[in-house]
């Protein structure tokens, strides 16, 4: 047995992390941090699952929900690397893993393992995300079915989301930086990377690795704003390093290290868990998004204009934001290839298209004919502009800047494919642009 667990055996980088916690956890703010003096809890940000439009099909319950706000914990629960052990005896490896201390185990062979023990970090809070419903998971995420607005059972053997997918570490002091790491600690406070997992020794003598299906992150250029553009999808390692994508999602060979990028989450960062994609919104960024009250006011403004069906001359009205899934009699419908808005009718089927397309009576263009739904998840909006555009072919309606932004974002699908999708329902976008400007008959034009 070779045991290199003494403090002297740890690299200087690990030693730098082993700072003593201050006796008092009280924060003395600078003049610009007056918010800390209030009784309002510090909010690090929110994680929003794409494809659910504000709530899960059966409602948000406990840790299984469509969005989760991360607040400063009453007591810090973060951890940081402490001591490295090189083990040649499986029994010793098992004993170290069962100490009740957080650790990451890298199995190099049947006779050689490296265990990195973690110690308490009084300056950070840790939040864990995954498919498991065990208590150490703060945010239970299940596979999203594109366009179905439903989730596959979290216990399904076909799920591609890891039970302990990733963890977010937030600094408890301003500016409350949040970082993403692949893999989460299980009930034994361990992370195990077996012989088949991609892992390696870093130049500074430490260990790192990737999870089976990987955790991908994309930071938009320019933040989450109308001027931002898509960034490049990267893979995050267990230790938070950034790598280029593997040839396929579960390939053994890692991508190239990207030293110029970091695992720090910014407003608008996307996190893909191979089955579900999460959007990170900072507390500052959420202040710039519309509220549900503002979205409701926009809905009432449209309905107050009394738009009409150009053929049936019936008055159209968007249903309330709480009404989802059930089409109402006055609900507007749209021909997604041209944007003309009508009331529901039963004519115009194109037999040569198998009855799946309709011919618009206004311009004679054929295409899908779908009901319009207002986007209810305010965190996905870039601004509070009027809902003038709809995603194709699903019919979710929001502002022009919002559709233009999401239509250019390629979201991971499967092992190596990427598709732009509606953020409200997950349906893959179609057409040249992926969205259409709505053409109402009446004052709205």
Give the overall shape, derived from the CA principal axes: elongated
SS field, number of helical segments:
5
Provide mean pLDDT, rounded.
85
Strand order of the largest sheet: 2-1-19-18-15-16-17
Helix content: under 10%
Strand content: 25-35%
Largest sheet: 7 strands, antiparallel
Domains, number: 2
- Termini separation comes to 78 Å
Q: What would you report as the Rg, rounded to the nearest angstrom?
A: 25 Å
In total, the number of strands is: 30
Going by helix content, strand content and strand pairing, the class is mainly beta
Poorly predicted residue ranges: 1-37, 149-157
Polypeptide structure, described:
- InterPro entries: Pellino_fam, Pellino_FHA, Pellino_RING.
- By secondary structure, the chain is mostly beta strands.
- It has two domains: about 5-285, no CATH class; about 290-435, no CATH class.
- The chain has helices at about 10-15, 90-95, 285, 290-305, 400-405; strands at about 45-50, 65-70, 80-85, 105-110, 110-120, 125-130, 140, 145, 150, 165-170, 180, 190-195, 200, 205-210, 215-220, 235, 240-245, 270, 275-280, 335, 340, 360, 365, 370, 375, 390, 395-400, 410-415, 415-420, 435.
- The strands form nine sheets. A seven-stranded antiparallel β-sheet has the order 2-1-19-18-15-16-17. A four-stranded mixed β-sheet has the order 3-5-4-12.
- The longest helix has 13 residues, at about 290-305.
- Mean pLDDT is about 85; it is low at about 1-35 and about 150-155.
């Amino acid at each position: 047995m070779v045991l290199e667990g003494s403090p002297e055996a740890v690299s200087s980088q690990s030693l730098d992390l082993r700072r003593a916690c201050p006796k008092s956890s009280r924060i003395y703010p600078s003049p610009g941090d007056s918010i800390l003096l209030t009784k309002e809890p510090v909010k690090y940000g929110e994680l929003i699952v794409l494809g659910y439009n504000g709530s899960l099909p059966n409602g948000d319950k406990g840790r299984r929900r469509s969005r989760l706000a991360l607040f400063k914990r009453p007591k810090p629960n973060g951890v940081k690397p402490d001591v490295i052990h090189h083990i040649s005896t499986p029994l010793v490896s098992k004993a170290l893993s069962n100490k009740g201390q957080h650790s990451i185990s890298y199995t190099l062979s049947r006779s050689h393992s490296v265990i990195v023990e973690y110690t308490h970090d009084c300056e950070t809070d840790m939040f864990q995300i995954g498919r498991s419903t065990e208590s150490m998971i703060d945010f239970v995420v299940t596979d999203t079915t594109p366009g179905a607005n439903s989730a596959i059972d979290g216990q399904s053997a076909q799920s591609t989301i890891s039970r302990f997918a990733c963890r977010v570490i937030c600094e408890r002091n301003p500016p409350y930086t949040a970082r993403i790491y692949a893999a989460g600690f299980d009930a034994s406070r361990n992370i195990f990377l077996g012989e088949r997992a991609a892992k390696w020794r870093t130049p500074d003598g430490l260990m790192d690795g990737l999870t089976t299906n990987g955790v991908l992150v994309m930071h938009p250029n320019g933040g989450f704003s109308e001027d931002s553009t898509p960034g490049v999808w990267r893979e995050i390692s267990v230790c938070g390093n950034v790598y280029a994508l593997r040839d396929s999602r579960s390939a053994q060979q890692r991508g190239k290290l990207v030293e110029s990028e970091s695992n720090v989450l910014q407003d608008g960062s996307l996190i893909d868990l191979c089955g579900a994609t999460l959007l990170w919104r900072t507390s500052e960024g959420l202040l710039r998004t519309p509220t549900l009250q503002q979205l409701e006011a926009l809905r009432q403004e449209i309905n107050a204009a009394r738009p009409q069906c150009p053929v049936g001359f019936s008055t159209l009205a968007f249903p309330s934001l709480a009404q989802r899934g059930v089409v109402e009699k006055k609900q507007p419908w749209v021909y997604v290839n041209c944007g003309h808005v009508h009331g529901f009718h039963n004519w115009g089927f194109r037999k040569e298209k198998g009855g799946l397309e309709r011919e618009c009576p206004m311009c004679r263009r054929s295409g899908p004919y779908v009901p319009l739904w207002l986007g209810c998840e305010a965190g996905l909006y870039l601004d509070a502009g009027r809902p003038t555009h709809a995603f194709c072919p699903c019919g979710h309606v929001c502002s022009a800047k919002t559709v233009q932004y999401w239509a250019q974002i390629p979201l991971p699908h499967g092992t190596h494919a990427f598709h732009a999708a509606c953020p409200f329902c997950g349906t893959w976008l179609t057409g040249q642009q992926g969205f259409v400007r709505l053409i109402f008959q009446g004052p709205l034009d």
